[in-house]
Write a structure and sequence with these properties.
two-stranded antiparallel sheet; binds arginine; two-stranded parallel ribbon; elongated; 460 residues; mainly alpha
Length: 460
């Protein structure tokens, strides 16, 4: 049997394997609400422009609403023979209202339909992700407020570098997530042009009103070029690029959670809610949730890569290759949403172990820079000389197997005579972080006021 929708010129039906490779209904049924919204907008416009009769339009609207409730109720039977969501909806519409259903597809094509559906879908997902990211930011901000003065080692090269506060570390992620939200918002703004009415690729001879359908669907305007409108998937690429960068941020924090919750670090504790045990080693508490968030970045970046490779060789306008955009995008965006939710739970749940973090912050001569700065500020030395002198003092402390603050004044003066008792006031980790009051610095008062600013900003 030839295809009812497009089989006019065919004398035989498709090979069975075509059902496997060609049909997209197994995954694009997810777009039913967007597909029906697009059809309702198109139908109303066709009637307003007298392209179809008001009574046919009324029937089509009634039928589409019934299709929607059938799908929502789970009583709709999707058919692979009907390939995709567009034809499944239209075929059922014909069963419900009869021949008038055939008038709906006037002046449009599945090419502009799918571009419209997918844009509407991606736009909805961006809204959802933005809300979730705001929630994750709020989680980090709450920790920052509680732990504005909780000292931990700051690392470079994963070597103890200078003391920072846990709150400061949390607020770093709030900034990263703010940029993620900005990227999604930017993608959303650029995608918001309607492809509907571009038809197959060249536009249509019917006197359609693309402004009207664009407005009805919440687009800012119609896309200006019909060839571009049906062949553009930048909106998916941009969203997946934003998703990939966001996933990288989540993965970096997940990696820190894995490190921090290890027995060797013990910087944070996680409740049983986010840890799992081992089936053989009774002592274990594994940070599975964090590890899985870290791994999600792989598949999200994979989706971006997959779609970039699909798109790069396609001539204008539509090619069926573009049907391959949906599964990776659905998978990536679903998993990003899941990762954000799990990460939000972990951020709310984690408790810093202040003693361990403070002890680690004090190890490794972490206030050496404070000593060098003191030599510049009080003894008036050029920073390069101060750096060299401090290096000698670190070597001396290493030799004596003690911290810088444990050296005697005589030890200090044996390296440089200008050093006085006052130097000891800058060698504690507390005085070190308290002194870092420069804009964006780790001083607890800075961190607290930044946390308060963010709290206010997130409320608006
Ligand atoms: N299922 C198709 C897709 O996702 C819809 C557009 C099909 N257009 C066509 N001319 N076959 O891309």
């Amino acid at each position: 049997m030839t295809n009812k929708m497009w089989g006019g010129r065919f004398s035989a039906g498709p090979a069975e394997i075509m059902g496997e490779i060609n049909a997209s209904i197994d995954f694009d049924q997810r777009l039913f609400a967007q597909d029906i919204a697009g059809s309702l907008a198109h139908c109303a416009m066709l009637a307003d422009r007298d392209i179809i009769s008001k009574s046919d339009a009324g029937e089509i609207k009634r039928g589409l609403e019934q299709v929607q409730s059938e799908i929502e109720a789970g009583s709709f039977t999707f058919s692979r023979g009907l390939e995709d969501i567009h034809m499944n909806v239209e075929a059922r519409l014909a069963e419900i209202i009869g021949p008038a259903a055939g008038r709906l597809h006037t002046g449009r094509s599945r090419n502009d339909q799918i571009a419209t559906d997918f844009k509407l879908y991606v736009r909805d997902v961006i809204g959802l992700l933005d809300d979730q990211l705001a929630g994750l930011q709020a989680g980090f901000v709450a920790q920052a407020e509680r732990h504005a003065a909780t000292i931990m080692p700051g690392f470079t090269h994963l070597q103890s570098a200078q003391p920072v506060t846990f709150g400061h570390h949390c607020l770093a992620y709030v900034e990263m997530l703010a940029r993620d939200r900005g990227r999604f918002e930017d993608a959303r703004r650029r995608l918001n042009q309607s492809p509907l009415g571009a038809a197959a690729l060249a536009g249509t001879s019917f006197p359609i009103d693309r402004e009207q359908t664009a407005k009805a669907l919440g687009f800012d305007s119609p896309a200006r070029n019909s060839l571009d409108a049906v062949s553009d998937r930048d909106f998916v690429l941009e969203t997946l690029a934003a998703a990939s960068i966001c996933a990288i941020h989540l993965s970096r924090f997940a990696e820190e959670v894995v490190i921090w919750s290890s027995a060797q670090f013990r910087f944070i504790s996680m409740s049983d809610k986010f840890s799992t045990g081992s089936s053989i080693m009774p002592q274990k508490r594994n940070p599975d949730a964090a590890e899985l968030v870290r791994a999600k970045a792989g598949r999200i970046i994979g989706a971006l890569t997959a779609l970039m490779v699909v798109m790069k060789g396609l001539p204008l306008a539509y090619s069926k290759d573009m049907q391959e955009d949906k599964e990776p995008a659905f998978d990536a965006l679903d998993n990003l949403s899941l990762a954000i939710a799990a990460m939000t739970g972990m951020v709310e749940d984690m408790e810093p172990v202040a003693d361990t973090m403070r002890a680690a912050a004090a190890a490794g001569f972490s206030t050496a820079t404070d000593l060098a700065d003191w030599l510049v500020r009080v003894a008036g030395l050029p920073f390069r000389d101060a750096h060299h002198i401090t290096g000698s003092l670190v070597a001396l402390a290493e030799e004596k197997r003690c911290g810088l603050e444990d050296l005697s004044l005589a030890d200090m003066q044996s390296v440089n005579k200008a050093i006085t008792e006052d130097v000891f006031s800058v060698l504690s980790v507390e005085s070190s972080v308290a002194s870092r009051t420069s804009l964006g610095g780790t001083a607890p008062e800075n961190v607290l006021s930044e946390a308060k600013n963010w709290k206010r900003a997130l409320k608006d």
